[in-house]
Amino acid sequence: MDFHLTEDQKMIRDAAREFAREVLAPRAAEIDRDGRFPMEEFREAGRRGFAGFLVPEEHGGSAVGNVGMALAMFEINRACASTGVTLSVHNSLVSAPLLLNGTEEQKAKWLPLLASGEVLGAYSLSEAVSGSDAAALRCSAVRDGDHFVVDGTKLWVTSGSHAGLFIVFVRTNPSVSNAKGITALLVEKGTPGFSVGKKEEKMGIRGSSTTELVFENCRVPAANVLGKVDDGFRIAMHTLDGGRIGIASQAVGIAEACLEASVKYAKERRQFGKPIASFQAIQWKIAEMGARIEAARLLVLRAAWLKDLGEPHSFEAAVAKLEASRTANFCGREAVQVHGGAGYLVDFPVERHFRDARITEIYEGTTEIQKLVIARHLLR
Questions:
Q1: Which amino acids are annotated catalytic?
Q2: CB 343 within 8 A of CB 336
Q3: Checking phi first, is residue 270 left (phi over 0); if not, alpha (psi -120 to 50) or beta?
Q4: CATH architecture of the domain formed by 7-119
Q5: Residue 197: how many CB atoms within 10 A of its CB?
Q6: Burial of 301 (0-12, 13-18, 19+ CB in 10 A)
Q7: What angle do helix axes 65-79 and 232-268 make, rounded to 10 degrees?
Q8: Which of the residues 9, 98, 138, 299 could staple to 102 if both were Cys, CB 3.0 to 4.6 A apart?
């Protein structure tokens, strides 16, 4: 692994840093407070090339790869985790599987729209009965001529209220084992019989919409099958490997924001006649945060690098997700503690970072699921 960044990687990192500083940081508290979906910010991200990180240039993307995307996501999530998760799902869970599994017609139709930010993508796997046990999903699709008729409800869909294209995983063959009878469908917003249901109220990433999807006799063209019929579970699991790198990148960005705020506050806040940064108790907190962030960052970049090479990366993605998410939560707790009573107030950003960090140990596979993935690789 070469630790020197290419010029393209430096450019995308610096461009994301500028976007985060000039566009996201001034609006992040308002987005969180009002629960406002960052659609305007997403459109601007699209204009700057951040909605097509993995899409080839011939389809309108910036094609910076997974390392370039990770570098950009570090910066974006330092400012606004709600915008960060919107871009992570859009790039890693929608554009990436479409690029890998789509037909030429599907790619020609959707990739330019996704890469430009004209259309926002969403990924729908979970249901009430299938969270960590993803293969237990029940939302059904029955073949009827040139269509599949979809019935059921999906839950926990990021960007569900604003997306224009959904990758939806449905059961097409109930006569085989759970994992073998699932198909991925491309479902367009406005398809008759398809509606967005309840929007969830959340602890953190409040600007990101999380909704249910409802299908009632919804007819989806068979031409919208992504990959092959009954091969959807493989697509879902492979896609989540990339998604875990995206969320690990988010976690690093949140952790960096916690460290940055803590250093600034520790230098300014005075107790007993001196800045609290002069006290060993505070120095140790900052040192521990910094060391854990550096380790998490390297784990994320290793997983992204392997994915760019086309090498197996499930183990590395799970390790990165596990450690980066734990680091974000550790740094969130320590940042609030460094700030003392001020850290409990909405006037200071660490309160928001603390809440945003919590979800990184839950979505794209819980901490416990990451441990199972890691253990299975080690025990082979």
A1: 364
A2: yes
A3: beta
A4: Orthogonal Bundle (1.10)
A5: 14
A6: buried
A7: 50
A8: 98
Count of positions (residues) in the chain: 380
CATH topology of domain 233-378: Butyryl-CoA Dehydrogenase, subunit A; domain 3 (1.20.140)
Topology of domain 122-230, CATH? Butyryl-CoA Dehydrogenase, subunit A; domain 2 (2.40.110)
Can you read off the two tokens belonging to residue 42? 């997403």
Question: What SS3 string covers 13-67?
Answer: HHHHHHHHHHHHCCCHHHHHHHCCCCHHHHHHHHHCCCCCCCCCHHHCCCCCHHH
φ/ψ (deg, to 5) at 241: -60, -45
CA separation for the pair 220, 150 (Å, rounded) = 7
Helix, strand, or coil here: 376? helix
pLDDT tens per residue, range 275-314: 999 999 999 999 999 999 999 999 999 999 999 999 999 9
User: Are 112 and 60 in contact, with CB atoms under 8 Å apart?
Assistant: yes
- Angle at CA of residue 182, ends 176 and 188, nearest 5°: 155
Cα 287 to chain center, whole Å? Answer: 28
Extract the residue ranges of the chain whose pLDDT is less than 70.
1
Handedness of CA 28, 32, 38, 42 (dihedral sign): positive
